[in-house]
Amino acid sequence: MARTTITHVRAVFRRATAAAEAAGLNVTGWYFEGGSKINGVTWKLHTHNEECTSVELSGWGRNFLGWTAQEAYDTLLALAGAWEAVARVRDSVPAA
């Protein structure tokens, strides 16, 4: 990918939320905030309400995705991959 844009971040955010939901997380109120390294604003993952699952990420605050679109994309891509793996395991385990 030549340059990561907000369109790329939105697409991987949709993938990550779908994967998180498949893994059993409540993503109803999740949204991300675009950042600007120049203006000192980070990319963040937020929740709208108390009912949805809070994601505790480390970095510059508990909801930090990165300073740039590329960093946010990479973070969301890693989360998506992890949640997809959890969903696969969850789906392969027989119900008790």
Short description:
The protein has 96 residues and is an alpha+beta fold. The chain has helices spanning 6-22, 69-92, and strands spanning 30-33, 43-47, 64-66.
The N- to C-terminal Cα distance equals 44 Å
Individual helix count = 2
What is the radius of gyration computed over CA atoms, rounded to a whole number of angstroms? 14 Å
The major sheet is characterized as: 3 strands, antiparallel
Main structural class? alpha+beta
Biggest sheet: strand arrangement: 1-2-3
Strand content: 5-15%
Reading the helices and strands in chain order gives: HEEEH
Low-confidence stretches: none
Could you report the average pLDDT, rounded to the nearest whole number?
85
Q: Tell me, what's the shape? A: globular
> How many strands appear in the DSSP assignment?
3
Helix content: 40-55%
Would you mind describing this structure in some detail?
The protein has about 100 residues and is α+β, with helices and mostly antiparallel strands. Helices cover about 45% and strands about 10% of the residues. The chain is built from two helices and three strands. It has helices at about 5-20, 70-90; strands at about 30-35, 45, 65. A three-stranded antiparallel β-sheet has the order 1-2-3. The longest helix has 24 residues, at about 70-90. The radius of gyration is 14 Å and the shape is globular. The termini are far apart.
